[in-house]
Amino acid sequence: MDSKRNLKTLFSQKNLVRMGIVILIFGLGFLTGFHTGESHHIIVQPELDTNEALDSVAEQLPEGSRIIAKFTDDRHALYYLNSGHLMKFDAKSKMLDEVNLNDLNTNVKIYYDDHVDTTGIISAKLSPDQQYLILTAVTMAPDDETEGNYSLASFKLDTRTMNILPYTPPVPKTKEKKDSLPPVRHKEKPKEEEVVTPKETYPEAGDIVQPEQQEPPKE
Questions:
Q1: How far apart are CA 48 and CA 26, in angstroms?
Q2: Separation of alpha carbons 68 and 78, rounded Å
Q3: DSSP, res 141
Q4: Cα separation of 111 and 151, whole Å?
Q5: Alpha-carbon distance 175 to 22, whole Å?
Q6: Consecutive H or E run containing 86
Q7: What is the pTM of this model?
């Protein structure tokens, strides 16, 4: 009798309504899931595969976001930058989280101010080998709370291990300056022709020299 009463109580109309509300809230929470701003939500359907989930999130990013990298390999992740914050969507777990560099490395202290656009991570790009995210951020010294004592620093984030290391940008190669004017060409002076004087020939020894015949004077 008690078991029957318990079953009736469990499946009473009020309890069924309560259970339905709980299931509805859970379902909406799973579908909506990600809150990326005061009024922006990203909805990811649970039945989507990893690539479809990546495309779905890429189409729903909040205004002003910039996609840094989308990996369709075994990483299955999407990284984007929004208001100085680096966000990562994991298509396997369907989870969207902020990549907090301060938590990844205690020697790193990023300065964030959501009311100022030029704070946090100000630039990000994918390395040529597609292994790292190259980040430039506004930082503070870990033991310094002085307001305004900020500096820029660069880091590289390993997208597989999530380790973060200091990064020194390569020095750009300086191009050799070329003269804007063409080189001046000097005209070569024409060479003077050498005048060759004919050499006088003299009779050699033993030669018979005939006297020149002179014409008789005219009367």
A1: 18
A2: 8
A3: -
A4: 9
A5: 67
A6: strand 85-90
A7: 0.62
